[in-house]
Amino acid sequence: xxxxxxxxxxxxxxxxxxxxxxxxxxxxxxxxxxxxxxxxxxxxxxxxxxxxxxxxxxxxxxxxxxxxxxxxxxxxxxxxxxxxxxxxxxxxxxxxxxxxxxxxxxxxxxxxxxxxxxxxxxxxxxxxxxxxxxxxxxxxxxxxxxxxxxxxxxxxxxxxxxxxxxxxxxxxxxxxxxxxxxxxxxxxxxxxxxxxxxxxxxxxxxxxxxxxxxxxxxxxxxxxxxxxxxxxxxxxxxxxxxxxxxxxxxxxxxxxxxxxxxxxxxxxxxxxxxxxxxxxxxxxxxxxxxxxxxxxxxxxxxxxxxxxxxxxxxxxxxxxxxxxxxxxxxxxxxxxxxxxxxxxxxxxxxxxxxxxxxxxxxxxxxxxxxxxxxxxxxxxxxxxxxxxxxxxxxxxxxxxxxxxxxxxxxxxxxxxxxxxxxxxxxxxxxxxxxxxxxxxxxxxxxxxxxxxxxxxxxxxxxxxxxxxxxxxxxxxxxxxxxxxxxxxxxxxxxxxxxxxxx
Length: 502
What we know:
By secondary structure, the chain is of the alpha/beta class. It has four domains: 168 residues, Beta-Lactamase (2-Layer Sandwich), CATH 3.30.450; 153 residues, Rossmann fold (3-Layer(aba) Sandwich), CATH 3.40.50.300; 70 residues, Helicase, Ruva Protein, domain 3, CATH 1.10.8; 44 residues, Arc Repressor Mutant, subunit A.
């Protein structure tokens, strides 16, 4: 009675065989043809189609079709399929939803994407396919002349199709000399602990990182917003003795005081309303590893006292508990504030400041890093091109000069966003100055302005930098600049600085 293999087991074995066959495909054409063949064979349907989105995600292309037991030729007339007019395909793509229709009615459903045959198509399954980034990259469609419930094939065919998408991307990267060249030319330097930059200020940072890698001291990362403080914290963890242990990140400005306390220290069941179970805090989650506390300057004073005890005694007491327990956590903190000024204003504990500033590392602003600006721009552009599955963009000399003359108030984060936007706008394969929105940039060699205009431009840039640093808080910015708030408001109005600019 065990001679007959159960149906689900036979299907699973057949599915594994198709996975193995597709994994051996040597090129994209064989891979895509094999997918529609597998989909038709596994489902027993007379039709299988594969639609793929282009790099701009605005056009859908019929990339492979299996009908009547044969792989159909891909003629030029069958390639484009603008899915704006195909409501069923558009629904699957835009909503990322599987579509299964057991009784296909041509009076209710527009099915011009299905080939015309003597027999009407009676059932349909349309399955979105996801790429490595979990984005919809195409559709796998099967159809039958018989009324059938095809929903049961959605999961397995979706997995098979996503596997083929990943294999296709891998083959494209392997056979793309430009992508291979980019991997060989722009990589993080070995001496930079995975960071990118060869300027003297960055080499000074590398030397400080090397001093602290294998020592358990706390580290305080300071610098303007967008200079890469989290990347440096991760480099300290990944290249140090704790690399095999957890690296936990918490932004101290992202949660209100009560939530931040329970998140960091954990709580016991019944500690407050809604605490129906014990909750492990981030200090416990980061045991023997690293806890990165971003924006430490925004931590409430009451929590600063608790953090000081963790740093001094290595002890944590969860909310609702009377007992403490030991933790072994390395603290790396970061801030864009001047903590010494906050101490003088009574907004930050002096004892905690000295404990955190045991080993400070000041990260340079991007405008101080010279040629690193262009190195990073090329790196971000190549990375964005690979992500969008496009050929690598060329750089016009005027574009590089344009970037080199910009002050980058948002630092590396701003540069990354500008370059990714420019790659999306670039259509001719060459990045031009008009692809970059640098309207508020400070030009270093603009000779068309008189002295007063240049001074106003410098003052405007200074005020914007200070306001952004203080997250638009005009009182804090005025205090940092040593101005009365009324004077700051007057200068903002005179220099046309609006909240939208900040």
